[in-house]
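Justification of computing resources. Each target in the renewal requires a structure prediction run like the one illustrated here; the chain below, 138 residues long, is used simply to show the kind of job we budget for.
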Amino acid sequence: MRELTVLYDAGCGLCRRFKDWLAAQRPAPDGSGGVVRMRFVAAGSTYARALYPELDHEATLREVTVVADDGSVYVGDRAWIVCLWATGEHRHTALRLSSPAMRPVARAIVQAAAGLRGWTKDGGDYADRCDGRCDREG
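Resulting structure tokens:
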């Protein structure tokens, strides 16, 4: 796998932050002397629809979707895991999260992030609405 295309919801502040964070990461080796490249495409866009006409583009707006250069499609927690796998620093975390024992943890993380999306869809940021109780309650 040499390239991943990450389809992200450009209208979601949390999704844009995730995309920016991923773009800033050092890429991991691809096993062939190169690195795994990531490109980012706005989900549901005309460009995304032209690139991948076979995808359910409404679904790509609900869940992060990653398409590998070999045609593999990853959705939800699998997409997050493969994105981590493509980074030099976080590949080991991806390998751990992909194990059968840790997949429920990966799913829970993705579900928690999906829950936060509702707070950011209006253009605000999750932190803008945080009342700070989570800091005090541990």
